[in-house]
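Design a sequence for this backbone.
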């Protein structure tokens, strides 16, 4: 079976894998296939190669980690297409695992080239897509390749779990449904809020996102993170919330700092009257208490984006309070889904990733799903 996985893992300067989460999450699908008597050909991208091959971005670097997690030797093809690949993949025996070299050493991968997808397809009799992290890309190995397996393709276990988790929140959730959106990418997350505002019962907007909204309501936000050109869109979201009965929770108070640093001077102030030159870097104590209450009384909760600059201890409290409230809500029977880049780092930093219902592996893919977009990697197999 030819399996598209997401082995796009971080490597240190000695080319050791520093976070093996993505590899670990692909292991169940590989083991299921092996147990059923199949052999597995794995393909993935790693990083963003510019001009073809580079030693640093070779997938051979991850083999020790993969072999260790699988407990099996892994054969390696130094090219993902052509004879180097076929010599290995066409002689693979049941129970064996092979890994193909980085797909993005060929520009055709990102271009979604059909001929290249056909060459990749020669490496297996069946196609499995287990790479949720790249499901929002219409690349040769994630979407186009499905044309070569009209009857013989499937989602892998990770992909299936991701889709199940997201649809549990977006289709027919237990109410009240709460979305918590924080972080700093205001413009890209406004698209999510525009889609979610009509679907959820409650919306918490925290982190750097909040200040553009406070500004839209006429507040003074000092030097806090804002995107001026997004103010009108933020105002429209607030108006839509009122018209469709969605309750919006913005932080009433903030931990403000006199500069963006771990050891800045701080003071607690109302979020709508921050002094000139000062910036809100975390939600304040009143907001913590309010947000925790809202979380604990919700039945389905989606969380994307930290409540503050949690990388600095002085501004991590709001994020950890919300993470702990999610834990309590989960224990009380709520369904809790955390996902998208830094939210995963935040829940890991709070040591609570095992205490929520599901932690998504997809950053961009999850965000696009929440925007209401159709993901090509999912559509190709649906
Ligand atoms: P995102 O990728 O959009 O989820 O943003 C995550 C980043 O937002 C983290 O690195 C946080 O440090 C940052 N962040 C959270 N709250 C704030 C804030 N109030 N001001 C500036 N950056 C923030």
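Sequence:
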């Amino acid at each position: 079976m030819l399996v598209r996985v997401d082995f796009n893992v971080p490597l240190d300067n000695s080319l050791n894998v520093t976070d093996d989460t993505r590899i670990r999450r692909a292991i169940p699908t590989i083991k299921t296939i092996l147990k059923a008597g199949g052999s597995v050909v794995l393909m993935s991208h790693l990083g963003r190669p510019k001009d073809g091959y580079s030693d640093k971005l070779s997938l051979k670097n991850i083999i020790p980690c993969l072999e260790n997690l699988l407990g099996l030797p892994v054969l390696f093809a130094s090219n993902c297409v052509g004879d180097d690949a076929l010599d290995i993949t066409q002689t693979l025996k049941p129970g064996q695992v092979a890994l193909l070299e980085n797909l993005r050493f060929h520009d055709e991968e990102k271009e979604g080239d059909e001929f290249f997808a056909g060459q990749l397809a020669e490496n297996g009799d069946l196609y499995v897509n287990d790479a949720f992290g790249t499901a929002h890309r219409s690349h040769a190995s994630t979407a186009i390749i499905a044309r070569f397996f009209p009857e013989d393709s499937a989602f892998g276990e990770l992909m299936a779990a991701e889709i199940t988790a997201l649809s549990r929140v977006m289709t027919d959730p237990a109410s009240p449904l709460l979305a918590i959106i924080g972080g700093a990418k205001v413009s890209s997350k406004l698209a999510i809020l525009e889609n979610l505002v009509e679907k959820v019962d409650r919306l918490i907007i925290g982190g750097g996102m909040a200040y553009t909204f406070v500004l839209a309501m006429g507040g003074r936000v000092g030097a806090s993170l804002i995107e001026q050109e997004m103010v009108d869109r933020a105002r429209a979201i607030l108006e839509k919330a009122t018209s469709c009965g969605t309750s919006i929770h913005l932080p009433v108070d903030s931990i403000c700092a006199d500069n963006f640093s771990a050891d800045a001077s701080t003071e607690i102030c109302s979020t709508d009257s921050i002094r000139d030159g000062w910036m809100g870097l975390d939600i304040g104590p009143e907001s913590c208490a309010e947000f925790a209450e809202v979380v604990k009384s919700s039945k389905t909760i989606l969380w994307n984006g930290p409540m503050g600059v949690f990388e600095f201890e002085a501004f991590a409290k709001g994020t950890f309070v919300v993470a702990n409230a999610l834990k309590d809500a989960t224990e009380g029977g709520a369904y809790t889904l955390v996902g998208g880049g830094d939210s995963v780092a935040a829940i890991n930093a709070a040591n609570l990733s095992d205490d929520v219902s599901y932690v998504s592996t997809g950053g961009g893919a999850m965000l696009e799903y929440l925007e209401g977009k159709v993901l090509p990697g999912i559509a190709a197999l649906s």
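The mean pLDDT is 95.
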